[in-house]
Input
Amino acid sequence: MPPLPATIRAVKDDIDPELVRLRRGGKVGPVLAASVLGLSAYLVWILRADFSYANAADAPEDMGSAAALLARPSPPVNAFVSVAAAPDLRAPARLWAREGKGHRLAPALGTGGRLWIHHDKDAPGTAPSDDGRLTGRLRRLADVPFEAALRQYVAALPPLPRTVFSEAFAGGIPSVDVAGEPLALTPETRVAVDENTDVVQVTFVQTDSVTDDASARGALAAAGLPAPSAPGETALGAWTYEIPGEVAAVRDKLHAARIFGAAVDPKLARHEGTRADLVVAANGLTLRGKSLPWSRVQRVTFFVPATLPADAWILLQGETPGSLWYVRPLFIAVAALGALMLWALVRQFLRARPGKL
Output
């Protein structure tokens, strides 16, 4: 191919002045920068509590008892604490929250549902507390993602039994049960009174010496106790008999005969009514016309609806600042990305000023 003329080569090699005056665009456009900045700000907001907790001291702050913690004007929020508390296992919660994660929870005894214990593992993997203290992260229930699931669970619970013994009635109807749980009673609150009778139940479990019904009745006779002709209740490897007497006296006779494999329990008669039917006096109580002296009252049970106060707290047991080690680098990376996108937006603004090419 013959070479091009010199004039054509000169035009081909010249630089277009219009292209030189064109402003070079940035690598990150304003829409992308604003989108990434918004996402970064959202993630920083979500991670702020975890980031603060991850930087807390490694030693927990001693809060004393659960009651002392809740009595504070302002309990520490998002803090690593140690609390003397026992979970109320009468109505433990096992629920799934919106994040698709299972949770095991139970209220702390004596707090009226204001403090809940969140177990960090399944029951086989949970280490028991030897000193009655629980350690973990203290947060408001409103700040955790499973609040709605827990409130729905508590609202669906049937009334819970709250037991009170006769000594608690010295000043009238008690305000708390035997575990210190508050009793919010109404006239319609269901009440059950268990009465001691003159009959006890003796249960034998199968051993080398007690192998069947006949040998069990023979052991009663050897202890000087009346043996019924047949067991009142028979289970696999166990026989239960109802005999007249008191628990202490029957147990002493069995021990004197060196019979230690029998359980002795009182046979109770239950009387039910409502709080409006209950009348308390110095010498006993009356429920729906049935008068019982205190000596025959084994226990009184009130069935009270479960509550979950609006200002409830939760102790995330086992969650230490060290367990969130990954939050710090993640938070710093997200914050740095947001700062970079903010700078990109500022540069876009400066470039777009009037007269700025």
